[in-house]
Structure prediction request, 68 residues.
Amino acid sequence: MPTRTTPVATPPSPSIDPSPRTRPSVTVTRLRVAALRCRVAALEAELERERERRQAVVDRYERLLAER
Prediction:
C-alpha cells in the first residue's frame, strides 16, 4: 500500500517580510507637507476673498438703506 506524504509549508525566514511596510522617505514626507501647506494657503486666501466679497455686499446694502 503506497503512503502519501503531506507537504509541509516552511515558514518564511524572519529576516524577509513578505509585505514590508516601509515608511516614506524624508524627502517624500517634506514634499507632501509642502504641498499641504500650499493648499492651506490657497484655501485661506480664497476664504479671505469670500469674506471681503460678503462684506462688500453688506456695505452696499447698508448704503442703500441709508439713502432711503
